[in-house]
Design goal:
Strand content: under 5%
Number of helices: 18
Number of domains: 3
Number of strands: 0
CATH class of the largest domain: Mainly Alpha
Largest sheet: none
Low-confidence stretches: 1-5, 465-477
Order of helices and strands: HHHHHHHHHHHHHHHHHH
CATH topology of the largest domain: Growth Hormone, Chain: A
Radius of gyration: 21 Å
Structural class: mainly alpha
Mean pLDDT: 86
Distance between the termini: 33 Å
């Protein structure tokens, strides 16, 4: 059992939080390094999209399985080996010589995170049985995500601009080695094993079917565009539809026969849950794609260095954290209208960026407008989980949260592939003289369409019941 002595609990928490810290850092650090990676491994635009999307895809496909692995095998053991393989695959990413090698290792880095991160949330539940202490611990979880976003952006910019024995972009992966080794030592010494639930069943087949379907969808969306949509890309896209249909049928059958399904399809009979997932889909598509497009535009379009680009996002992370704390109180009284207000702020930020993000723009203006985006997003993103789950019966809460997390990561990968694809398509229209300004304006315009859809989805949802402040922030600052 976990040692419940007070000082040991908080020491254990610091160890547990290394998982979300590394996971979120590796989401944000990569955006600053995309131009360097593209040059370093001679990648195409589609291949660098897959560097981000592949990581999210590997995580999305195995999040539910990773969470159940902790129940079945013991959370400390799964946490340790998840951290081990995350550290190993990080180093393999840094050693990659070609875009294909990098995309493969990046996928497995995301896969290993799917076994590492769910244990951190589960261990918090085990370590802190007192409601007040648990709320405080979860608060530290949210703070860790915000800190990780800031670290990722600054560290990514700094390391990419560093000219050492090896290329700077490789350092963004190797930096995980010392942190990972320290975390492994701490996991071994400061965490104790949790009881195993051998009654849990693994749906390995379901995870494999889901992964295959996602690959058949994401791969052609990124590679097909730059190759002129060859027959195989259309074939894979059509195949993904049949695979997803088969996956749903497979899960329904397993639920009926009580064979241990990956997801409970009864969830999708809840109208509000489906609407909430659509809001999640379009918001995370918009958010992840925006982070990519703005980082590329600042560096390749406006001439920012990687470090200056990272510094431009600091205010974004700070205002995100402040507004999310404010929203946790406001949403009790005003419900979904807090999220609608956040969408309006994001819309204002986008319109101002289209108007002002021109070659002569000052770094201060760029920082302020990206900060306004963070201010609005802090009112929306952390609370989509609660909006999506508010109509879900308590007995489905755990599996619904797993479905939400999987959907969130998949939406982020789709955002990189679809909205990012629009951005890179416009860039490619100008041949050897790419016009990043037009590409950015077009990408933001498509993002505004996603915002409108999110607003409509939220409007369709019934008013939320009065409830206490939100407890958990999903990872996607």
């Amino acid at each position: 059992m976990i040692n419940t002595a007070k000082h040991n609990r908080w020491k254990a928490l610091s160890v547990v939080l290394t998982a979300p810290l590394l996971y979120v850092i590796d989401i944000f650090i990569i955006n600053m390094a995309i131009p360097g990676i593209k040059k370093g491994v001679h990648a195409t635009d589609g291949e660098v999209q897959l560097v981000i999307a592949g990581y999210l895809l590997g995580s999305a496909a195995f999040l539910i399985t990773g969470g159940r692995a902790g129940d079945y095998l013991g959370r400390k053991k799964v946490f340790f080996w998840g951290m081990f393989f995350f550290t190993l695959t990080s180093c393999l990413c840094g050693l990659s010589q070609t875009a294909l090698e990098l995309n493969i290792t990046r996928f497995f880095q995301g896969l290993s995170s799917a076994f590492m991160v769910p244990q951190s949330i589960a261990l918090i539940q085990v370590l802190f049985t007192d409601e007040r202490e648990r709320a405080k611990a979860i608060g530290w979880y949210g703070i860790t995500l915000s800190i990780a976003a800031i670290i990722g952006q600054i560290l990514g910019g700094y390391l990419v601009d560093t000219h050492f024995v090896i290329a700077g972009w490789r350092l963004i992966f190797f930096i995980n080695l010392p942190v990972g080794l320290a975390a492994l030592w701490a996991i071994h010494h400061y965490l104790e094993e949790t009881p195993k639930d051998t009654a849990q069943r693994f749906d390995y087949q379901g995870a494999l079917i889901l992964t295959t379907g996602l690959i058949c969808l994401i791969w052609p969306l990124t590679k097909g565009r730059e190759l002129g949509w060859p027959w195989w890309s259309i074939g894979l896209l059509l195949s993904s539809l049949f695979i997803f249909a088969y996956f749903i049928r497979d899960q329904q059958t397993k639920v009926l026969l009580q064979k241990g399904s990956l997801i409970d399809t009864a969830l999708f009979k809840i109208r509000e849950f489906n609407i909430g997932l659509l809001a999640v889909l379009f918001h995370f598509m918009m958010h992840t794609a925006y982070l990519l497009m703005s980082a590329i535009y600042l560096q390749n379009g406006l001439g920012f260095s990687a470090l200056d680009c990272g510094l431009a996002f600091i205010l974004h992370a700070i205002l995100f954290m402040i507004s999310s704390m404010m929203a946790a109180k406001l949403i009790v009284k005003y419900g979904k209208w807090v999220l609608q207000a956040g969408l309006l702020i994001i819309l204002a930020a986008f319109l101002l960026q289209i108007r002002l993000f021109r070659p002569a723009v000052s770094p201060l203006c760029v920082t302020l407008l990206i900060g306004i985006y963070g201010l609005g997003n802090g009112l929306v993103l952390p609370f989509l989980l609660n909006i999506a789950l508010k109509s879900v019966p308590v007995k489905f809460a755990g599996v619904a949260a797993g479905v939400f997390s999987t959907f969130q990561q998949t939406a982020s990968a789709l955002g990189i592939s679809i909205l990012g694809g629009v951005f890179y398509y416009v860039v490619s229209l100008h041949g050897s003289s790419p016009n990043y300004l037009i590409a950015f304006d077009t990408g933001v315009a498509v993002s505004i369409i996603c915002l409108v859809i999110v607003a409509v989805m939220l409007w369709m949802l019934p008013e939320a019941n009065k409830q206490s402040a939100m407890e958990l922030h999903p990872d996607g600052i």
